[in-house]
Design brief:
- This protein has 430 residues and is an alpha/beta fold.
- The protein has two domains: 173 residues, Lyase, Ornithine Decarboxylase, Chain A, domain 1 (Beta Barrel), CATH 2.40.37.10; 242 residues, TIM Barrel.
- The protein has twelve helices and 20 strands.
Length: 430
């Protein structure tokens, strides 16, 4: 379990903040050795603040847990969670491969210097162009999601005279306890082959001149807090026969509030490895794709409070919202928040943290206790490293926030803030 990052100061701030975060001598929230108020002044708000050492430590934790079990296992960054060039670079530097789910993610991973042989292409609706780009880049494996995928990829590989290793993604009929929008392992899913179709694909691929089937991929969903579904998925995929490679996806939950405590990484890895050894054998190459669990708690988003309105509720409106964190609106996800220059003050007022967008549903966090919030305060929302930047958008023509990496008291801009000029950059005017 992740230790409370604030324990050294004796504070009560929760484990959802990046490791190494603390309340500094000025009484301010500090992330990656940097004062949150100074970050807000230097880079503006909203801003995604990434504690680089947290990111590196979580990568090492997965590698150590998996590597201790077997030298031929591998950890892949599920890059859809935080497809930022700087994040790709840090995780590649720590020894992770990555999976990508689009041509754009592939382009960013290559730009960041990821080894193409350790890139895996996913997707339930891969275009001909994306498949061609993957082949030309020399990606390690392509995960086939349908019979149409098989046909398209075989034709392109023949045209390019390439031989490509592939996995087939199956829906194992296992559902974890999570939001329906991020559950992927049930039989009725847009992802993967049914078992009957998977058997047909296996037969077709056995006679392919250009595609080599090396294994099976299964993913049962995201933000899971129970380990039993992972065991069940291993038992399910065993029905398809024996293969040298098994990619069992990711799905380990991340804590977004103090009340959430996902399984430890070591327990998660041990559960899967033990099931693989018992059911599939100890000689298999095993791949895991932690995305959210790698990056969610590495990041804090800072906002400026613009207005405070008291009617039936107390509405604390900030200068961001659903354009920088869409998860509360998509999934009803819960978040914490604090005021950065008095993080330990007792919250006496129950507040709704509202965004600036023209939607009643643009609420980032509900029923948060804050100490006398006022315009000009800097508000911090933790655990925004997964699917914050990835789902950012320009609703109401709001420019997307910058990304700042912090380490040992130094802050560096890795993605600049969008400008109004950027919003019009693709216009074609006669």
């Amino acid at each position: 379990m992740i230790d409370d990052p604030m324990i050294a100061t004796g504070s009560q701030l929760s484990h959802v903040y990046p490791r190494g975060s603390r309340v500094n001598e000025r009484g301010h929230l500090e992330v990656g050795g940097c004062d949150a108020l100074e970050l807000a002044r230097e880079f503006g708000t909203p801003v995604y603040v990434v504690a680089e050492d947290d990111l590196r430590a979580r990568a090492r934790e997965f590698i150590d847990a998996l590597g201790a079990q077997h030298r031929d296992y591998d950890v892949l960054f599920a890059s859809k969670a935080f497809p930022c060039t700087a994040v790709y670079r840090v995780l590649a530097d720590e020894g992770l491969g990555c999976d990508v789910a689009s041509g754009g993610e592939l382009a960013l991973a290559l730009r960041a210097g990821c080894d193409p042989r350790r890139i895996y292409l996913h997707g339930n609706a891969k275009s001909t162009a994306e498949l061609r780009e993957a082949l030309e880049a020399g990606v390690g494996q392509i995960v086939l999601d349908s019979l149409h995928d098989c046909e398209r990829l075989a034709a392109i590989a023949a045209e390019l005279d390439r031989r490509q290793e592939v996995l087939i993604r199956v829906t194992p009929g296992v559902s974890g306890d999570t939001h329906r929008a991020i559950s992927t392992g049930q039989a009725d899913s847009k992802f993967g082959f049914s078992f009957d179709d998977a058997r047909e694909a296996i037969e077709r691929l056995a006679g392919s001149s250009h595609l080599t089937l090396v294994g099976v991929h299964a993913h049962i969903g995201s933000q899971l807090f129970e380990l039993e579904p992972f065991r069940a998925a291993v038992h399910a995929v065993a029905e398809l026969g024996e293969f040298p490679v098994y990619n069992l996806g990711g799905g380990l939950g991340a804590p977004y509030t103090a009340a959430q405590h996902p399984p430890a990484v070591a327990d998660y890895v041990e559960t899967i490895v033990t099931a693989v050894h018992e059911v599939l054998g100890a000689d298999k190459r095993l791949l895991l794709e932690p995305g959210r669990a790698l990056v969610a708690n590495s990041t804090v988003t800072l906002y400026a409070v613009e207005t405070v309105k008291r009617n039936v509720s107390t509405w604390v409106a900030v200068d961001g919202g659903m354009s920088d964190n869409l998860r509360p609106m998509l999934y009803g996800a819960a978040y914490e928040a604090l005021i950065a220059d008095r993080p330990l003050a007792v919250g006496e007022e129950r507040c709704q943290i509202a965004g600036k967008h023209c939607e009643s549903g643009d609420v980032l966090a509900r029923d948060v206790l804050l100490p006398a919030p006022a315009p000009g305060d800097v508000l911090a929302t933790p655990a925004t490293g997964a699917y914050g930047y990835a789902l950012a958008n320009n609703y109401n023509c709001v420019p997307r926030p910058p990304v700042v990496f912090c380490r040992e008291g130094s802050a560096r801009l890795v993605v600049r803030r969008e400008t109004y000029q950027d919003l019009a950059a693709r216009d074609v005017l006669e």
